[in-house]
């Protein structure tokens, strides 16, 4: 079951410049930063209520985020929803005809298992499912 809005992923070119901007807007005290090797990204995140805002910058030109920035520029990249059983949800969504980018969950930031749904079958919104490990 999809149970919550977990985070909003924002594609940025330069993490330090964006951190300074978000610090100004949200008065962020501490960013949680980490590198997610598998996605070739560096993430700086902070919470607004129960929802994380994830500033995501590529660490390699091969990263999907680098390609997104090239095509569309900086901005909202994806919306992530929490689930209590990512495997079941992927099977269910596949069964109802939703195209999956990841048919199996993989490692994401914040010790989460994650998987993306294809924006072609979600009305243009890149959606991610995530489940704490
Ligand atoms: Zn995400």
Task: Label the CATH architecture.
Answer: Roll
The percentage of residues in β strands lies in 35-45%
CATH topology name, in short, is: 2,3-Dihydroxybiphenyl 1,2-Dioxygenase, domain 1
Distance between the termini: 16 Å
Biggest sheet strand line-up: 2-3-4-1-5-8-7-6
Number of helices: 3
Portion of residues within helices: 10-25%
Give the overall form: globular
Radius of gyration: 15 Å
Tell how many strands the DSSP assignment holds.
8
Largest sheet: 8 strands, mixed
Describe the protein in words.
With 133 residues, the chain is of the alpha+beta class. It has one domain: 2,3-Dihydroxybiphenyl 1,2-Dioxygenase, domain 1. It has three helices and eight strands, in the order βαβββαβαβββ. It has helices at residues 15-26, 64-72, 86-95; strands spanning 2-11, 32-36, 41-48, 51-58, 75-83, 106-107, 112-117, 127-132. It has an eight-stranded mixed beta sheet with strand order 2-3-4-1-5-8-7-6. A hairpin with a 4-residue loop joins β6 (106-107) and β7. The longest helix is centred in the N-terminal third of the chain and has 12 residues, at 15-26. It is globular and about 45 Å long. It starts with a strand and ends with a strand. The mean pLDDT is 95. The structure holds zinc ion. Zinc ion binds at residues 7, 9, 54, 78, 80, 128.
Name some characteristics of this structure.
2,3-Dihydroxybiphenyl 1,2-Dioxygenase, domain 1, eight-stranded mixed sheet, 133 residues, 41% strand, alpha+beta
List the helices and strands and how they pair.
Elements: E1 2-11, H1 15-26, E2 32-36, E3 41-48, E4 51-58, H2 64-72, E5 75-83, H3 86-95, E6 106-107, E7 112-117, E8 127-132
Parallel strand pairs: 1-4, 5-8
Antiparallel strand pairs: 1-5, 2-3, 3-4, 6-7, 7-8
């Amino acid at each position: 079951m999809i149970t919550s809005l977990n985070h909003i992923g924002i594609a940025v070119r330069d993490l330090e410049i964006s951190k300074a901007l978000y610090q100004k807007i949200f008065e962020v005290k501490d960013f949680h930063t980490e590198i997610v090797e598998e996605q070739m990204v560096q993430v700086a995140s902070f919470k607004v209520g129960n929802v994380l805002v994830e500033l995501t910058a590529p660490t390699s030109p091969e990263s999907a985020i680098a390609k997104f920035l090239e095509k569309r520029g900086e901005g909202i990249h994806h919306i992530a929803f929490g689930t209590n059983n990512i495997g079941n949800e992927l099977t269910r969504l596949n069964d109802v005809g939703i195209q999956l980018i990841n048919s199996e969950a993989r490692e994401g930031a914040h010790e989460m298992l994650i998987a993306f749904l294809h924006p072609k079958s979600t009305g243009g919104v890149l959606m991610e499912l995530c489940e704490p490990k």
